[in-house]
Amino acid sequence: MSENQNLPDVAREDGHGTVAVSQRFDNPGLPPHRQRVTDIDAAAAKRAERQVATLFGLSGVGTILALVAYFALPYDLEAGYIEHLGQVKLSNALIGVGLFIALFGIGAGAVHWAKTLMPDEERVEERHELRGSDEDRAAALGILSEGAEEAGLGRRPLIRNSLIGAMALAPLPAVVLLRDLGPMPEAKLSETIWKKGTPLVRDPEGGKLKASDLVNGSVVHVLPEGLEETEHPLNEKAKAPVLLIRLDPELLDEASSAGAYEGIVAYSKICTHMGCPVALYEQQTHHLLCPCHQSTFDLRQNCKVIFGPARRPLPQLPITVDEEGYLVAADGFHEAVGPSFWERG
Amino acid sequence: MTTTTTAKKAGSLANWTDERLGASKGVKFLARKIFPDHWSFMLGEVALYSFIILLLTGVFLSLFYIPSAGHTVYDGVYAPLVNQQVSEAYASTVGISFDVRGGLLMRQIHHWAALVFVAAMTVHMFRVFFTGAFRKPRELNWVIGCVLVLLGIVEGFLGYSLPDDLLSGTGIRIASSIILAIPVVGSYLSFFLFGGEFPGESFIPRIYTIHVLLLPAIFLALIGAHLVMLVIQKHTQYPGPGRTNTNVVGYPLFPVYTAKAGGFFFIVFGVITLLSALVTINPIWAYGGYDPSPVTAGSQPDWYMGFMDGAVRLMTGWGEFTAFGFTWSFNILIPALLIPGLMTIPLILYPWIEQWATGDRREHHLLDRPRNVPTRTALGAMGITFYILLWISGGNDIMATVLRLSINDITLTLRVLIFILPPVVYIVTKRICLGMQRKDRDKVLHGRETAVIVRTESGEYFEVHEPLDEYKRWNLVQHETHEPLAELPSEDANGVRRPGAGSGWKRRLSKFYFEQRVEPVTPAELAAAHHDHHGHEAIEATSAHH
Amino acid sequence: MTALAARRRHPLATAILVMIGLIVTGVLYAAATSGKAAAAVSAADEIEAGKKLFLANCSTCHGLNAEGRRNAPSLVGVGAAAVDFQVGTGRMPMAATGPQAPKVSPVRYTQDEIKAMAAYVASLGPGPAIPSAEDVDPAKGDVAMGSLIFRTNCAMCHNFAGKGGALTRGKYAAGLEGVTPEHIYEAMVTGPQSMPVFTDQTISPENKRDIIAFLQSVEEAPAPGGLSLGSFGPVTEGLVAWLAGLGLLVGCAVWLGAKSS
Lengths: 345, 546, 261
Prior knowledge:
The complex is a heterotrimer. By secondary structure, chain B is mainly alpha-helical.
């Protein structure tokens, strides 16, 4: 019996040679069945039976182990030590290992049972073409067209068309109902709470800073004072973080010097690419690296992008000192911080 | 209880069910259905069982998890977090880990099962692709499978985000930036999704509902449809003696497959549990709660999002510009939306692309050996190479740390490799496939090498070749090859358009697929080889053009 | 408090503050020097010994007077802490040029030799001193506060568990496992290589000790869930899921599909 003959010919492509027609070997049919040890040797079958039962028994032991571990072991962080695993939570490890034995024992036992003791002679089931017979198809078509006729879909276009119209309109409320998911963006994406005179305070411990607190090579992560008093502190914090860095004023180009105070510069920490905190400052190269996608900004060139997927420089926060000598913002940011968005312009 | 009384009880129970549900018909239809046996057919089951494990452990976790971004102060047992301001979602997840007995184990099973779930779906998809199981009549099931993989990635990402730890919060921030980058509607979408600005307090409860209700319901429906189609269409089988396109050879559902597949569920559950008992996953207590200001070195998504993150890392900034007063962020849109789109759409449409090239509209229930379809296999290998390179890019910082290499060098190298390596892999794979087919021919014509060297009387040495038996030979000659569409005029002699003659594009695609091919040995060739001392020449003469 | 706050803006306030500052500094200085008076003679010897060691081992790159050369910075004013860190962790003397000096063990100098070189460099100009045992005592630190400060100031380079991470062009933030509390403290105050400087004003000495306490707790902490996979995050987890998880399951599937003998 050649495999070719098994393929239904009805749908074969148009007949000009897409299917190679050549003289072919015949399918030799199923090879003779080879009996297993357990089929011919009663002792082997008995052994397999015992193995399966042992696996199921082991599963029971695993369940008991899991239960004992659950009830008997103290559940605290310090408990337990297993070689090679380091200090682990013994309860976690033992409930887990117990459950593993319980589950794996059932699984391995069942599979072993099927493999060794259930019949392993392969059986053959015939396939039938999926399409219905010609009569069935004709009958189905007849039913559908008869039904359509009974409903008058063809004769009464007014009903059909008005139904289509109604169905098309009906989902609209569902769309409209989603409107209150959130407010309109308005200018929120472009605003931060930094404004002229906002003191810079340390993140996370708080406390204002003086210029003299920083030496060349110093970095301080700062936030605007009063962040916690805003309506949505976390939302503001997502835009407000600033990196304060002091370096030799000679190193800064003209653009960077504009907002600097005695070599201290402040730049938005929120990446202009995807908003990760660009917090990795390399003291010797004066590069800032984003840990998420490796955008690299050069502090000496007003945080111009020198590597990676970001395009825009990090916005600079112009700083100065107040009359007490504390570092404050000389102004708010002159542009939107963080990732790009359509209306940013 | 004696056997007879047991039988009687079972009989009355069966009768009770049958009289109410007509169960006997179902048993008759299903219980002796034949399933072919092969380890690669279990990959889909690994995915299915991981999904069931995810449902079970997910229900447990939802009993303790609080889906709220509301602020709270952590006061649990983990000293480094005490008195820190965290979200209720985070505090409750740390609580599951440290205060609920077995909670950490359940969390770890859930997370490991999620990683295995997507991995198993992916490998299952590879198996289906390379063996041609997607061909008619299974195109629809291929599409459902593709959708399941995509949904699996989304579902996984949402689950990864729920604990609201530092790592997942960074991930959500990146997701929000991708949404912001969408032209025209980006800001609005983002504000609707987050209920205002990032991070807001709405996102966690919203994705929780999607994660535990909406997506699992869709999963159940699609998996159900996937399996019903499997039963209706019957499983495909590998070619072999006795296996034809009109039969299915294997073991009955009851009892053999019930034991094997049922047992395999426990094996999958067991293995994932063992992994969870011994290996930490996602130590959220160490990351700390989400805070937009800090970040950790090596911020990564889970593996299934790695290819997308890698594409983003490979990109340069040139893609962003301002025009007409608006910002166009192609540096984000290309890697984060366009490339994944260009990868998935051809994948979903692949059954039809290949059908167009072959013009083959028959049902196929016998699988291909990948070597016998060199172009498809090479395309698949090319796609996987592209995917893996993106995946590697997603871990460029970890590679730099572990291998002590420059992260810039790694990125630059990968930017070049992503263009060069996939075509190279395509060419190499195709040649390997054709070479393997020639080797198959050789084996059929000249038999198996026995490693026995014989010296003839005249002093010549040759290796004894043992002819293949008809069963082994069938494996190597059973397949058919397609030829490229003939360059026929699209109208016949009477000026009538030939149906299916194909456009120029169709012919070109067909040529691309089938120009290089190796035909299986025919009985005539085998007979000739037996008479011919110079059989090797015969191989070359009849094998591939080019 | 309100009274004090109201007077903060008084014109005399600054003057008074400066005076208080001067007095405190003077007293502290006196206390510090008087404590060391007894050891003054040996200190001079130590500086001399340190100078000899410096000339023999460091001057080729850093110059005969530690004034610095093209590829090696001046050491005037870097303080004893910098020497103790760089030489004490084996980073200096640098064996070969590279993106950055790696940690080397075993360290080539004895503790006394390092202290001598540190004393010599400290004598060249004022800089951060080697911290006292109390400054770096993890037992006195607040682990929770330390974790908070570490996360904002350190984790972006050194990773959430102090395992280190990549910087640009082959440079890296070192792993913090096994680094002594003194060296951690010294790194913070001196800012070796790519690392920024954290002065006493930007991160207070107490908070530095909190960080040390946190790192200590991380190192000693149990890994509650089992193997930590190097604490590299999802990349290693993904590899394990594929190789161990899926690998084992495929192994089981092959056993399941194989015919029994």
